[in-house]
Recover the amino acids of this structure.
């Protein structure tokens, strides 16, 4: 798939093992557009994806999904992101779908179902994968 005809969507899979969430913590992860799309494009793509999930995926009882603007500089102002080489730009500034209380089993099923759905918007196909 040509880069300009795809929307790379990463569902982050590096979160606590099912059944081993430390006391006082919750199971949480996120979905984001993994390219240089503008914030407005990211909002559009992720809103489309979130609406699809809410309308078509029925097995996520107890799972909370919501959109946020994630800016690592404002969330962690003490960190030197350029020194940590987090990104070429020095930090993360992006839209995300935040996910709370999802198990790895649910993530695997969601990933499979979203890939099968063959979603597209504005002539671009969603390329959905999960990696950390």
């Amino acid at each position: 798939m040509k880069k300009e005809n795809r929307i790379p969507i990463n569902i982050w899979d590096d979160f606590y093992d099912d059944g081993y969430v430390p006391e006082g913590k919750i199971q949480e992860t996120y979905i984001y557009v993994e390219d240089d799309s503008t914030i407005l494009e990211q909002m559009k793509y992720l809103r489309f994806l979130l609406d699809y999930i809410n309308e078509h995926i029925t097995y996520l009882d107890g799972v909370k999904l919501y959109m946020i603007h994630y800016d690592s500089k404002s969330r962690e102002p003490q960190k030197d992101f350029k020194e940590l080489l987090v990104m070429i730009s020095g930090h993360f500034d992006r839209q995300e779908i935040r996910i709370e209380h999802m198990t790895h089993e649910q993530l695997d099923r969601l990933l499979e179902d979203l890939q099968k759905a063959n979603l597209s918007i504005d002539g671009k196909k969603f390329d959905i994968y999960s990696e950390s």
